[in-house]
Design a protein that fits this description.
Elements (H helix, E strand, L loop, with lengths): L3 H7 L6 E4 L3 E5 L9 E5 L11 H22 L3 E5 L15 E6 L17 H10 L3
Antiparallel strand pairs: 1-2, 2-3, 3-5, 4-5
Bound molecules: guanosine-5'-monophosphate and zinc ion.
């Protein structure tokens, strides 16, 4: 099965690379949320955060940290969002794990998801269901 990000790693599809080391590569997203929107990916193909071995995930998140600082320093962005869409229902289109680094500006009009409230007793029940799996 061909993977678009594996093809970018191999150099078969062009990209604007901003960082590369032995395990990690970072390049501009082709359809940026904001200028400088960067994708940080492992060179080896893993579908998502459950799939990727811890050692490579550690290297990947260090790549995210490097790119985040570079986005701030290089573009003068006062902040940025780090996001990983995990599975199609969460908006993951490319099944090769990637972290989005999205530079932000003051009053840039990008809003996060609406938040709600728990009903009586629901937070305790939900926390328990998660806790039991860890
Ligand atoms: P996802 O929705 O899977 O979290 O994000 C996939 C991202 O990959 C999208 O933001 C999309 O714009 C980006 N993308 C898809 N195809 C390409 C491509 O060929 N080159 C680059 N640079 N980015 C891509
Ligand atoms: Zn891949």
């Amino acid at each position: 099965m061909s993977c678009i990000f594996c093809e970018i790693i191999k150099g078969n599809i062009p990209s604007n690379k901003v960082y590369e080391d032995e395990d990690v590569c970072a390049f501009l997203d082709i359809m940026p949320i904001s200028y400088g929107h960067t994708l940080v990916i492992p060179k080896e193909h893993y579908a998502n955060i459950e799939d990727i071995p811890e050692k490579i995930l550690s290297k990947l998140i260090l790549g995210v940290k490097k790119v985040g600082k570079a986005v701030k320093d290089g573009l003068g962005a006062p902040g940025y969002n780090v996001c990983e869409n995990n599975d199609p229902v969460a908006g993951q289109i490319v099944p090769h794990i990637h972290f989005h680094v999205v530079p932000r500006k003051h009053n840039d009009g990008l809003h996060s998801w609406p938040q709600g409230k728990y009903g009586d007793g629901d937070a305790e029940e939900i926390a328990g269901k998660i806790k039991n799996q860890i």
